[in-house]
Amino acid sequence: MQFSPLIKELIDALKILPGVGTKSAQRMAFHLLERNRNGALRLSSVLHNAMEHIKHCEQCRTFCENALCEICANPKRQSSELLCVVESPQDVLAVEQTLEFKGRYFVLMGHLSPIDGIGPADIGLDQLEQILQAGGISEVILATNPTVEGAATAHYIAQMCKVHTIQASRIAHGVPVGGELEFIDGNTLTHAFSGRRVI
Amino acid sequence: MQFSPLIKELIDALKILPGVGTKSAQRMAFHLLERNRNGALRLSSVLHNAMEHIKHCEQCRTFCENALCEICANPKRQSSELLCVVESPQDVLAVEQTLEFKGRYFVLMGHLSPIDGIGPADIGLDQLEQILQAGGISEVILATNPTVEGAATAHYIAQMCKVHTIQASRIAHGVPVGGELEFIDGNTLTHAFSGRRVI
Ligand SMILES: [Zn+2]
Ligand SMILES: [Zn+2]
């Protein structure tokens, strides 16, 4: 004996969510059936809408349902000569939350990874090339992740900038503010030492 | 700046899932958008179907999309004089997986909990009363959870059985097979001692 066919289908469908195994999917399915059918119906309809309507911003490649995202549709932001390159829409949100950066973005939606067959065109570097060529950018701030792939991607884009004689910079890596030294990994600490400044 | 309205809606909708907070919901939303739009569309349609069509088995109260669940629709099972009472559909599955029990079920979909306002009618005990009255049951096996509420619920149903002169039994509590004694909680160990048998 197993659950009814439709319940089994529901549990299987929930398992496409990252981090959700059979046990969690069962728990979710019964929770929705017992306590929140309206919420589940709303989730069903929002999921459908989102998958049908969310595409990439034509200019910066982040996810949005319009041709241009909020930032790319803002003339103030678009008149900036600074372009910040990040790997994901979540990174845009993280940078925005600092309230420090008022320029434009370009969202790679990933990073170069030859081993996975992800080359320059897969992360929109042809589109970025056109933006650099179009002029109006004085500096590209490379805010890719502090990983091997992120660093390699930043390096590749820095070379592209050189061709267009546009300055490229990389955000500083170091000890997080408020972090305790003893819990920082060695690699970060190495970066923190080599990036030290006279005070 | 925040995510686009539709992305925000998607993240909020995913947060109705048990154990899913803002960060997980974001991760899920972007995972689906980037890597599995077809899976998400399938989840959307299954969710809708399930919420619209899954109801309670008319006889045992478990969740199913038909009038009767697989077990209640099976004449062999329904001719049994044993009725096992459990709290949830997942418990039916657990008992079925032992392949030991071949009788009927009654699924409370909860337990008595006066503090939460959950009384006998809320867990279908009026329906259970009718089943006991209808005859054909010689023993009710109380397999509610080994919790205070599960035990109280079992006790309540045992009293109902007494009225109909039907034998009521409670599944044994004790040390799980393969469990190591040192990791068993004291309450379980107490049950294991008081339930000891001569070998
Ligand atoms: Zn944009
Ligand atoms: Zn049934």
From TrEMBL, chains A, B:
GO molecular function: DNA binding; zinc ion binding
Keyword field contains Transmembrane: no
One biological process term in Gene Ontology: DNA repair
Highest rank taxon of the organism: Bacteria
Biological source species: Paraglaciecola hydrolytica
Family to which this protein belongs: Belongs to the RecR family.
Residue ranges occupied by any Toprim domain in the UniProt entry: 81-176
ZnF (C4-type) residues: 57-72
InterPro entries: DNA_Rcmb_RecR, Rcmb_RecR, Rcmb_RecR_Znf, TOPRIM_dom, TOPRIM_RecR
Function: May play a role in DNA repair. It seems to be involved in an RecBC-independent recombinational process of DNA repair. It may act with RecF and RecO.
Protein's recorded name: Recombination protein RecR
Name of the gene: recR
PROSITE patterns assigned: RECR, TOPRIM
UniProt-listed PANTHER family: RECOMBINATION PROTEIN RECR
Keywords per UniProt: DNA damage, DNA recombination, DNA repair, Metal-binding, Zinc, Zinc-finger
Gene3D superfamilies: 3.40.1360.10, 6.10.250.240, RecR Domain 1 (1.10.8.420)
